[in-house]
Structure formats: C-alpha cells, structure tokens
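User: Predict the complex.
Assistant: Input components as received:
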Amino acid sequence: MIADGTRVTALAQGGDAIAAWLVTEARDLADTKAVIGGFAHRLVAAGFPIYRFFLSVRTLHPQVVAIGYQWRRGDALPSETPREYGLDREEIYLTSPIKPIHDGVSEIRRRLGDPGSRRDYPILVELEGEGVTDYLILPVRFSEARINAVSVATDRSNGFTDLEIERFKALVPLLALVLEVKETGRIAATLLDTYLGRDAGRRVLGGLIRRGEGITIAAALWYCDLRNFTATAEALSRTDTIALLNDYFECMVAPVHRNGGEVLKFIGDALLAIFPMTDDLDRDRACVAALAAAEAALADLDRLNGRRRSDGKAILEAGIALDAGAVTYGNIGAPDRPDFTVIGAAVNFVTRLERMCGQLGRQLLASAGFASPCGSKLVSIGHYRLRGMAQAQEIFALPPNAGDQVIAELAAS
Amino acid sequence: MTSVDDDIEPEAVAKWLLNAGRRIGTPGELLSALCERLIRQGLPLDRASLHISTLHPQVRGSRFLWQSGSGQQAEVHYGRLDTAVDAAYRTSPLFAVHQTGRPVRRRLEGAAAVDFPILAELRAEGISDYLAVPLVFSSGPLQVATWSSRRPGGFHESDIAQIEGFLPELAAAIESHEQRRMLRTLLETYLGRQAGQRVLNGTILRGDGETIAAALWYCDLRDFTVMSDAMPRDQVIALLNDYFECMAGPVHENGGEVLKFIGDALLAIFPIVDDLDRDRACRIALAAAEAALADLRRLNVRRRGMGQRELEVGIGLHMGAVMYGNIGAPDRLDFTVIGPAVNLVTRIEELCPTLGEALLTSSRFASPCGSKLKSRGRHHLKGIAVPQEIFGLPSAAQS
C-alpha cells in the first residue's frame, strides 16, 4: 500500500514527533524565526524545561556578519539581533561561549545549580541572575564546514536530565538541515538584493532567469554621473578612488531607495535607477518621488562637498537626468551569463539628457514627459538637440535658486 | 551471535541522510551512496533516479541516475528549449507525479500494456517493478525520485514502506544541496564566475576587494543607441543577445571572465597569476578578441542574408592592475573593477571608430603579443594626460 503523500517518516514511526516535525512541517515554514519558535514550543510541550533557546548563525550580507535568535519561555517567536562586521574583534563575542564552539569545541555544559560549576563566560552570570540552573551550547554544523551555535538553558532546580540532553543532541543535526535551507534561501535573497537590486533580485529568485525573459514596465528613470571622474580618478590612489565613489554613491542611492526607487545598475561613476509606475494614474506619483529623491541626493552631495572642502579635497559635481517612459527589464547577454538590466529608447534618452548637464551647467535636467507631472517645480530652459537625435527636445530644470533654497532650508533646520 | 549492524534499521537510513549523507559532494554521489546502503540492507534495487528542477539560465532541471552494476551515471541536464525532451517528459511518469502529487507504481512483469513509454524500455531491460514518488521541497515545484527492481515479483510491500520511510529526509538532504547550488549559480550568472565565488567566500563588505593584474577587454557596438531607437524592442534584445554571444563565448572559452554588461558594452578580464603569466594572459585575450571578431563576421553574414544591418564592434585591450571588489551604497553594491587601467581601456575602445579599426590595444598589451600587432601611432585620449601609443591588427588580419 502506498501512503497518500510522503509525510510518514521512519523517525515518526520511531516515536520522535519533534524529529518528524523537523523533516516535514518545519521545512515549509517561512523562515528561521518560525522554525525556532515552533521548535522551542514543541520541546517545551514535550516536557523539556527550557527557559531560553539561542541560535547564532553566520551569514553573507553586506552589513551583517551573523544573526542571533533568542527565544524565552512565553515568547511566540524569537527576537532577531543582527551583528555587524567586526564582531569577531568585539568583547561580546570574544568572551562568549560561541567563540570556542566556532573554534571547534564539541560542547560546553555548565550546571549552574552546582555551586562548584565554572561561570567562565559573562552570559552564564547573567543567566544565573535570571534563575538558570543548567546551560548547554552545541555546534550546529552546516555543509562546507560552516559552524553555527545553538544553546539551551533551563531554570528547573535540578537542571536537564541526561536523557533530555541526549534527545536534544540527537535533534540538532535535523535542526541544522532545516536551518541551512532557510538561511541559504535568505542569503540568496540578500545577495540578489545587494547586487541586482530589490525588485530585480526578487524577479530572478522567482524564476525570471532565462536569457530573453523580461517584462516591460513604465517608470520614472534616473541616470546620474560624476563630472570629470576619469580625470579626477587618474590623480587619486585606488583607495581614495573607492572612498570617493562610495561616498558619492551613498548620497545618490539612499534617497533613491527612500523614495521607492530601485538602483538597476552602477556603470563606473554612473548610476541608473527606476521608480516603477503601477499604472498610468501612478505616473505623477512616480515622477514626483523621483524628483524628491534627486533634490535630496543633491542636498546630500552638498553636505558631502562641505566635508570634502574642509578636508581640502576636490568638490564633486554630479549631473542627474530624469525621464519617464516604458523600459524593458530582463535578462540580456550571453546564454550562461545574462545580465539583468533595462533597455529601451527611454534609457538611451536619459543617458543623452544627462550629458547635457555638463554642457548647460546644470545639476538636474528633466524631459518634458517627466516635468509635466511635477507641475511648476520644473521650468523649461528651451529646446536642444541631443546627440544622435534628429528632433530638438524641450528640456526642464529646477529654477535657478531652487537648489540653493533647499540647501538654505536644510542648513537652517 | 552476530552484531547488529545499525545500517539495517530503517531509521538508520534516515539518520544517515541527515548526518553523513547530506554532506556528500553532489546529489548524484549521495544517490549512489544511498542505493549501496539500501542494497546492503536487502532492498532489491537495480535502478534509481532523482529529477530536480533548478534555477539556472540554461538548464530546466537535472537527472541523477544510479544503476546496479554500473553505479552512478553522469548528471543529465534538461535544456530549457529542448522540444524532444519536452515530448518525452509529457509522456513520462515524472509528469504524472508532477501533475497529481501522488506516486506512480507499475509492476512490469507479464505482457500487459504499459501506459508510459519509458516503462516498456525498462521492462525490456528486465525491470520488474517501478515506483516514482514525489520529493517535497520546502518551496517550489515537486521533485521526483524513482526506484526500480529486477527481482522476480518486484518490490515487497515492506520494501515500499522502507523507501517511503526515508523520503522526507532524502528531500531535505537534496534540498540543502540544491539550495547551495542555486546560490552559486545565481551569483556566477549575474556577477561572473570568479566574482560570484569571491562573494560566496565572504568578500561582501563595501570596500572589500583586492588588487589584481589582468588583461582587460572592453567592447561596444558602433551606433547602437541610434540603431536601437528605431528598432522594435524584441529586435533590440535579439540583436544584443546575438552580439553578446559572439563576444562572451570566446572570452569564456579562453579563460576570461565577463565582469559587466553596460548597455551594448562589455567589460571582461583575463586574470594574470604572476609576472611570468602576463604574456599568456595577453595572448589569450588577443586570441579571444580575434575569435570574437570572426564570430561577429559569421553573424553579419547571417544578418546580411536576412536583410538586416551589419554590426560593427570596437574592442579595446589593455593590461594593468585593477581593484576588484564591492563599490556602491552600504546595502546596494556592485562587484566590479575600477582603476586607471579600466578608464584607459574604455578610452582606447572609443578610438576604434576614429581610426576605423575593430581592435585596438595599448602598448603594454601589445608587447607580449610580439609582431602580431602593429603601431597605429600616438593618440591623445579623453581624460588621459599623456598621449598613448596605440596598436592594431595588421590590415590583412582584419578583413
């Protein structure tokens, strides 16, 4: 007789319901937090006198090196504490029992109910103050030799029994397997967000990965670059060039993200971003958001230049061009190495428009299609022929003093 | 008294999958180690396969096969656009499992007609019993595993129960493999092979990176912007894909790596291992460039035949030290190369239309390539203070 479905497990037949849960339902849960919460609840329900459950997982993230999940009896879900780079040099890590586990120690147990027990890590003293009598920390081994750590603590007067410790140890490899899948999925999402952008990253993870696959969307477009960057970079050391680019990109990217935009591409010192429109009625909102982002970015750049001036460094001049139109968003390139990018006449146009910034001595230029939703905020500065285009285009810019006004207001605030 | 081998407990297979099994290098190796264990436990297994769908630009899924006698077979990739594979799939038990989410079992002894063509083949090979079961991953489509036996009478019900007993563990172990493979594929696809590997190894903090020496390649299409303005979107995509295939194919075949696509431009590197390796890197970059130009000529013959405009490319080649790493905003990075050498190679490429050449190099690049390249004189390049001596292919080599 073939069972209906595949959920009957040898382990369930063997009687360990928590093990069976880990290889079946736990895998369907959305994330590590849900797995930890469910696991801790099941342990308590099965009679494990757990007071605190803790998991530390190392991750791949541009700002976060590890995540700590802490669950205490009564919590529905664990708290989640991201740890930033440099943690491995900090006291909190160097004096924690997690460090020896990372270094290869196979377990650390401290029976704090026993007055003679060592209290050789600050966390033990802290937990004892909360009534903890027994503490166990174990490695959680992921594939490719990555080691994480899990700990349990109880406040039962005589601590964990030997049987409880054995059962818990037997569950850790299963927990590791479930967590590794969740954490790998999370790392994939983070890395795609980081290197492709949020929307593009999600589309790729959702399966949009074949070359030629793409979608056409309407968006407000942003293209910016640094004036004279090549010449400036010639005279700088590599470290200074990187620092300069990072400072400048930070001024541009943060306002784009804050206003609902997405950075699609970095191209040397240039950046292409979109502010997607959900439909025609959304056009005005997208353009207004993009313009607000551009004004904020220019204000951020002014502040950066203030710092650079006082450090005796050259001032950075950016040009930002804004347009609105349909772009094709998808996988273009070689079969095994597609690139997730945008193409379309609007992209060509916005890069050409940006080149006019230097020529016209403006920091921000917009097309007529972009300017109309922004109402009186942008003013026409005349018709110009852009490189490669037959027809002269009407170009819009901020009124001469508008930028100064924003800066003056910010300076006053 | 015989000692009890812990392998013979069904539970032991599940535990083995979750501990040692899942650490085995590939799903194929995992499958054969699993089958060998099952046979030691008395399961009459003669053929087993895993069918896993993947997130990959060119591959829809993979098949891992094990057979008694010959053991682990090479992994087979199912292409995305392979209609023969498609037709075979639609008449296979895999399709039935995907559609219904239920197992398919067929006893193949006797002369009764079979409802799937593959089963007739297996029967001809002596298979007496066949079972295809779903493997449930935590997200995404169902995966499938199949189990076949040659034993007269086929599997016993206890054999079937044993197989079903470890399926969740098998699914969990394979899923963990596939997740890591997916992560690697995605990064290699969108960042390039080496850059993807570096990010996986933990080079991800902004400013993280290293200085490497490499032969540099920068190419773009002449008049692409103007051409693309007048073209329907699908034609633009097809044109770019055809052209990038001509360029990226030879780059990869010669050990280079595509770092970036920038509209119609492409930046690639051929890393130099040490000082003695400079000549090799420059020569293979030049060989790749010549192959790319030859591929483009073939593409242009096809385009001419279809009445389409021919594509003209410019390739700039240079050699130097570049900084390879993470640049951008704290939460939105770009893994790329920067440095004066990158600026110079783009400026050299920009000179291609002016000099009417498809390939130009710096003098540093040209010297290891010996007499193959000829000087085209000194030129002033935008943003570069000192005029540079530029080299090109002898005119006969270009036509």
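Chain B is about 40% helix and 25% strand.
Let me know if you want any component modeled separately.
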